[in-house]
Amino acid sequence: MNASQLHERLRVEIVRRIDRGMLTGMLLAKQAGVQPSHISNFLHRKRQLSLSTMDRVLAAQSISVEDLLPTEKLRGKATDTETKTPLPTTVPLVSGTTAIYSPSIPANAVLEMIHLPHGSLEELRPRRTVSRRDWQRFLALRTTAEQAAPMIPILRSRSITVVDRHYNSFAPYRAPAPNLYAVNAGGAVLFRYVTFDADSLILRPHNLEYAVDLLRMNTGDSPSEFLIGRVCMTLVEP
User: Is this model's pTM higher than 0.85 or not?
Assistant: First the structure.
């Protein structure tokens, strides 16, 4: 693959992320330290990026050259674990801190194992960023009364939420219904419907007695990294 082909594959990947709601051209310009018009011209094939700008875009979005290679080039080099590894019927119940910061879940961080109906995770579709590729996918969190209150009746106090950490895209899983996410809000876990605009994540409650919250991002932050994952199942204990 030559430089022009690599450039085009990067453009296609960036467009894909924008279409999925994971990124905006304005945010990418801030992350890469270039003018928004420069990114717009790149996305619309009006001009190519310089090698230095291309490096900054790759770094800002945690994309490696290997990620841009054609699929057939990678066959035989790695196993597609997402399609070949059987999904679990139990998931670890962990603390919010573990859910946010631990790519893999060590045994001493497991509070208990939650048993799920057989096959309940099999058909769930992932939409993850490259940085989440090696993260343990499913885990469970127990909601507190404070966490559940803004999302009543979707969540209840002491309910168990199963979180898919391989879904940190803003694209709706089943449009037009909004996704419910576990969100990293400064090291604390919130459960909200989430969209983003410019430099802020907009956290919306289900219970309208609660206010909409804004989570400000710093320059260079990727909005999808604030999403711990999509809540794909809730369990209410008797």
Answer: no
